[in-house]
Amino acid sequence: MEQLTQKLSNGEMTIQELPMPTLSPGMVLVRNHYSLISAGTESTTVKSARKSLLAKAKERPKDVKMVLDMLRKQGPVQTYRAVMKKLDAYSPLGYSSAGEVIGVGEGVTEFAVGDRVACAGAGYANHAEIVCVPVNLCVKLPADANLKYAAYNTLGAIALQGIRQADLRLGESCAVIGLGLLGELVCLMLKASGVKTFGIDVNPEAVQSAKEIGIDDAWPRSDASIGQSILQQTHGLGVDAVIITAGTSSLDPINFAGEIVRKKGRVVVVGAVPTGFERNPYYYPKELEVRMSCSYGPGRYDLSYEEKGENYPAAYVRWTENRNMQAFQELIHSGRISLERLTTHEFKLDDAPAAYNMILKRTEPYLGVMLKYDVAKPLQQTPVTIQPKNFSTSPKIGFAFIGAGSYAQGNLLPNIHSNADIVPIGIMTNSGTTSKRVAEKFRFGFCTSNANDILDNDDVNTLFIATRHNTHAQYVLDGLKRHKNVFVEKPICLTLDELVEIHGVYSQLAQEPSCPRLMVGFNRRFAPHAVELKKKLGNVPISAIYRINSGSIPKDTWIQDVTIGGGRILGEVCHFIDFLSWLCGSLPKSVYATALPDPDHLNDIVSISLKFENGSIGTVHYFANGSKELPKEYVEVYQAGQTGVLKDFKSLDFYGNGSPKLGKTTSQNKGQAAMMSAFLDSIRLGKECPISADDIFRNTLACFAVQESLASGQEIQIDRCFHSDIA
Predict the structure, then answer these.
(1) pLDDT digits (tens, 9 = 90+) for 21-52
(2) How far from 413 is each of 418, 443, 513, CA to CA, in Å?
(3) What are 139's strand-pairing partners?
(4) For residues 536 and 542, what is the distance between their CA atoms, to the nearest angstrom?
(5) pTM for the structure as a whole
(6) In the beta sheet, which residues pair with residue 217?
(7) Distances (CA, A) of 705 to 225, 522, 608, 708
(8) What's the angle, vertex CA 178, arms to CA 174 and CA 182, rounded to 5?
(9) Are 470 and 491 in contact (CB under 8 A)?
């Protein structure tokens, strides 16, 4: 399928042939008929992309600070990779479209193939022939709906939410500052609801356009009589509310709103304007109320609502973003508002770059700019060929990736050095833009959105899994059952039942002469300073402290969601339990964990005491409530009169037998490169897997034991409380 993309590095805009998006549970696959270019929001994005790197840095001081912090903590190599991944990515454009359903995901009952729908959401309702949208960002339309008008879906919901925040009644009055497309949609709906409507804009052409849709009055901002005219038409009161839909860095809209609104009136901010209003002479004496309008309405930016499809009860949240979309579509279909004159331009998808150039250069007056899709055109199925692979002899390692996010692009893929023995075959991600860019950069043979294109490919004998955590177990099972070597970024699974199933499948394969390798990405045991520390330790038990200043992650982030990310115990603490197990050369025997009381029950401020089979003891202090100024990881190891101190994988101090021995590096090295080399060499040279299956299964059990200990308040004996065949 074709999709419009741009590069953040230089603003290059192209129509890409990409794999169709993956149809996941709770999602709807839609063939677009139309998509709307949001001239305000999208032109800002495109302008920013076309600026120089210096100009980008000047307008993003927070991003620059993050880059500098990363440079200080992780060094230049990792920082460069992270920045270039962002700059070189193919970024999708668009967030409002309409079309026909061509597929529904597992659990979807609201839609069926053939339904006409309107879609919303950045990253979902893209300018693409095919989009995949969560159910709560999609609304069903009547069979005779006009899909061109329905494609205004997102902007209509944004406008309607702004009106709801204004809390206007029949017969009241409202001024709209900013008469672009969003402002005109607000005016149309206000007019339809019986509210006296006034418009203000810096552009006289926009003012004239608003007058033509029949609002009560409109003025250019340069007109000095606006305030007096509004007083005359509101019987000396001023307007009951002002809705600001302008986009500007000026304080004039917010301050002028205070001038024209009545005492105890409401000012609603919908557009991107600063809100540092002057307290006097209007806001304080009038006791004005300023309200922010959050995009499409309640549910926006809520992971449970937008991605998991959970709804809010209508009795308690009458107007969610989805219900706002439904209401907007009903206004269109019933004829209570007419969008006929709003669409000033219509382009084919292939001509989309010309549409953006027109908007940026303002070569013509415009309002609604629509992209139209050729729905009679046969769609190309995945995979999309990138670098054809013609083998004279079969490589020892033909590898593929399922998932290729930031970690895979920054730490895994750069450390796989392709040659005649190691060949990149295919890559699959949910996003076609990511698949295509990563496939090109790392010279894969094809990219796809269908995992079976990889799992059923005979040229692929080694599978890397770097998806969200809730998908790991199934992909591990799928790979092992096809006798492929499997490397999975931690954790291997999220539930004990999944671990039992993986253990069962692997145990059967282990009886075969050519058992595939199973590896989890526990990279810290391969870090140079860690390897040096282990060399200095003897064979007697150790005692160790591992302190992690992890930093907080909001509770609505996917990794904190127990059904998607598994929480930070399974998602991150597994690293540190594995590290101590490797360091002492023994598997964990028992676990006792305590956590700081937390109303959200995130368990990300936790102390974990571990006992190992060889008598070693260790404590993992995983704290999310510390200062960002403190380095993230710190390890102390004690053994027979000697002590090793590992600081953030940058330095190693070893005390004992004389003066301290010091080892430092300028860059952090957590062992990813050595881990990848060891794993690939084990396949290529027929060696044992660098992390044993016993380590993988027992250390994962220890993480489940941590959760059990936190729930019960008891010390958990791993071999007694969990499946003895695994433990």
Answers:
(1) 999 999 999 999 999 998 877 877 777 767 66
(2) 10, 11, 29
(3) 118
(4) 12
(5) 0.87
(6) 198
(7) 73, 19, 10, 5
(8) 90
(9) no
